[in-house]
TrEMBL record:
Biased segments, Polar residues type: 1-10
Swiss-Prot/TrEMBL keywords: Heme, Hydrogen peroxide, Iron, Metal-binding, Oxidoreductase, Peroxidase
PANTHER family linked: CATALASE, CATALASE-B
Protein known as: Catalase
Family statement: Belongs to the catalase family. HPII subfamily.
Length: 700
């Protein structure tokens, strides 16, 4: 007979049921069996594949996968779009996949997402971003499920529940939402040092993208490609955005969280609606499949490592264009189900222990989220190729199978369905005959997995001075939100193993003792990692054309010239209405905020404050018409754009001295005074480098 749960008193005196559960001094399985290692999955040798028999791995991840109903445990907040992928046709020596054949066009659906926040959180949180692409190929579904950071926090999938439990809001008060600036996250990161490389990227500008259209994507893991002759190569996938990789300023991301929490999903949808279709090139880094899975000293099975492009150039394989927004968010963006095990002939997985666990986890989680095993029949998940899987019944079964023998072998259905070799004469598509070394079953990892700092240092020293300053500020902000001084100090000690100046700067900002300087190796920098110093197309860049409602004769021409060069003009005035028939004012001073614009065009003279209730005080006043203080909402729009290094264009004879009236320098970098017919050329030139970083120089 089962014993009754004991009653205990809570701190407030209320009775609390304390039944069987979290009451063991030692870690156990869900059934009470002791656990001696929860850091490593069971593998066939240190570098071997993960074994299905690992009951602790399966139980731990199974429970984690079903902790939330029905929202995704991670990647809950997402935005999606339809499009197509066109192959360049240069992959024949590398991969036999049909969708990579010359000129092949394949329908795709892409879902971008934040990782930590709930569905109701903001788009612009400092966070890793998911970048998942579903290819509807003629050989079946291929899912490339990646992130915007090429490394991950952990090396073994068995640690994923620990990572997410640490990153999610504290379980007692359910705060903070969609943020890593809290004790449990940094407690885990400072103790689980394999996370240091990924966190360095997360503290950089990469974690606050300007737009989903301006975000790089990575497959994270090492995959295997096999050509028609059966020759295999190891590869890492890359998505390169046509518009380049650009980011928000940290203050912008915070402002957007309040002013427009849907900032990224709105930008994506509006760009597609405007015909500024986002584009990426899909490319791969290629490595010999020689049995070592090591390239230039970098372990390719370690998902906390990346390979600099200078060592292994990215070979472009095709172009993806997103040209259609979802017809229904729930039916498509919310119900789309990705899985790294959705593979096609010519693409296979490696023995990366994180990838091996994902092959179980992604499939298992759909049982809770989508109500059963038939989620592939939901239209957004359905393949375009014929299906005959012999699966039957289950929740949400929509197919009406024919025949009476859903088993193999059979004679009652004529032996159907046949094996693929019988039909096509081809080798099995997914079973590359990779040798498995003879070894004992162990919970362990290769010695090469123990390097947790060198790639964080490589990334950091590859950044420009201004980007390194942003990293230091990010660590200072995040750790400043931690309440436990031990955690702050421990993470600063970790930074000392990455860069002494970085650690010293963060320690000073936090009022902590400066760690002793260490002699650190200087790897060769990778210029490809910096976002600054290049020139990019300006397609879809938003330019705010700011004017006085009574002074708009130049607005239609300026808007047309900007649009002809691929930019998206947004007309901003004191009140709504139309500038001309069919040309509406898009924003008013009340609804506009600088975060929405990549550049401003100021057409003066601009109006004064409408009444005393919104007038600036004398100290902050800016002269408007007749020397009356300028509308403070407009002054805020301009000063924020200036502070965030955005391009500002004023017009000769109309806007002279306007910036000085707001208390700003009108000859600062990124600011131009031009004729009306020169506005579009000026905007295109200034926006091609994203921001005028030299406006506020940072010492190296």
């Amino acid at each position: 007979m089962a014993s009754e749960p004991e009653q205990q008193a809570s701190p407030g005196g209320e009775p609390v049921l304390s039944g069987p559960g979290q009451d063991s001094e030692f870690l156990t399985t869900n059934q009470g069996a002791p656990v001696s290692d929860t850091d490593h999955s069971l593998k066939a040798g240190e570098r071997g594949p993960t074994l299905l028999q690992d009951h602790h791995l399966r139980e731990k991840i199974m429970h984690f996968d079903h902790e939330r109903i029905p929202e995704r445990v991670v990647h809950a907040r997402g935005a999606g779009a339809h499009g197509s992928f066109i192959s360049y046709g240069n992959a024949s020596e590398l991969c036999r996949a049909d969708f990579l054949k010359p000129g092949k066009q394949t329908r795709v659906f892409v879902r971008f997402s934040t990782v930590v926040g709930s569905r109701g959180s903001m788009d612009t949180a400092r966070d890793t971003r998911g970048f998942a692409t579903k290819f509807y190929t003629e050989e079946g579904i291929f899912d490339l499920v990646g992130n915007n950071i090429p490394e991950f926090f952990i090396q073994d999938g068995i640690k994923f529940p620990d990572l997410v439990h640490a990153a999610k809001p504290h379980p007692d008060v359910e705060i903070p939402q969609a943020q890593s600036a809290h004790d449990t996250f940094w407690d885990f990161v400072s103790l689980h040092t394999p996370a240091q490389a990924h966190v360095m990227w997360q503290m950089s500008d990469r974690a606050i993208p300007r737009s989903l259209r301006m975000m790089e994507g990575f497959g994270v893991h090492t995959f295997r490609m096999v050509n028609e002759a059966g020759k295999a190569s190891l590869v890492k996938f890359h998505w390169k955005p046509k518009l380049g990789v650009h980011s928000l300023a940290w203050e912008e991301s915070q402002l957007a969280a309040g002013a427009d929490p849907d900032f990224h999903r709105r930008d994506l949808a509006e760009a597609i609606d405007a015909g500024a279709y986002p584009e990426w090139e899909l490319g791969v880094q290629i490595f010999p499949d020689d049995g070592t899975a090591v390239f230039e000293g970098i372990d390719l099975l370690d998902p906390t490592k990346f390979v600099p492009e200078e060592l292994a150039p990215v070979q472009p394989l095709g172009k993806m264009v997103l040209d259609r927004n979802p017809e229904n968010y729930f039916a498509q963006t919310e119900q789309v189900a990705f899985h790294p095990g959705h593979l096609v002939p010519g693409i296979d997985i490696s023995d990366d222990p994180l990838l091996q666990a994902r092959l179980f986890s992604y499939l298992d989680t759909q049982l809770t989220r989508l109500g059963g095993p038939n989620f592939a029949q939901i239209p957004i998940n359905a393949p375009v190729s014929p299906v005959n899987d012999m699966f039957r019944d289950g929740f949400h079964q929509h197919r009406v199978p024919k025949g009476i023998a859903p088993y193999k072998p059979n004679s009652l259905d004529g032996g159907c369905p046949y094996m693929s070799q019988v039909v096509s004469g081809q080798q099995p598509p997914l079973d590359f005959p990779q040798p498995v070394p003879e070894s004992k079953k162990v919970r362990s990892e290769p010695a090469s997995f123990s390097d947790h700092y060198s790639q964080a240092r490589l990334f950091y020293i590859s950044l420009s001075a201004v980007e390194r300053a942003h990293v230091q500020q990010a660590y200072s902000f995040e750790l400043g939100k931690c309440t436990d001084p031990v955690i702050r100090q421990r993470q600063v000690e970790c930074l000392a193993k990455i860069d002494s100046q970085l650690a010293a700067g963060v320690a000073k900002a936090l009022g902590l003792p400066q760690p002793a300087a260490m002699e650190l190796a200087d790897p060769i920098a990778s210029p490809a990692l910096s976002q600054i110093g290049k020139s990019w197309p300006v397609d879809g860049r938003k330019v705010g054309v700011v004017f006085n409602t009574g002074n708009h004769q130049h607005v239609p021409g300026i808007a047309q010239a900007l649009a002809e060069r691929g930019m998206s003009p947004l007309l901003v005035s004191a009140s709504g209405g139309e500038v001309a028939p069919g040309l509406p004012i898009d924003r008013t001073y009340l609804t506009a905020r600088s975060i929405e614009f990549d550049a401003l065009v100021l057409i003066g003279p601009l109006p004064p404050a409408p009444d005393a209730s919104v007038a600036l005080d004398a100290k902050a006043g800016a002269a408007g018409a007749g020397g009356v203080p300028l509308d403070p909402r407009l002054a805020l729009l301009v000063t924020e754009a200036y502070r965030h290094n955005k391009a500002i264009i004023t017009l000769e004879g109309l806007s002279d001295g306007l910036l000085q009236a707001v208390g700003l320098e009108d000859d600062a970098p990124g600011i131009e005074l031009v004729q009306v017919d020169g506005v579009a050329d000026s905007a295109q030139q200034l926006l091609s480098t994203h921001r005028a970083w030299e406006r506020f120089p940072v010492k190296d």
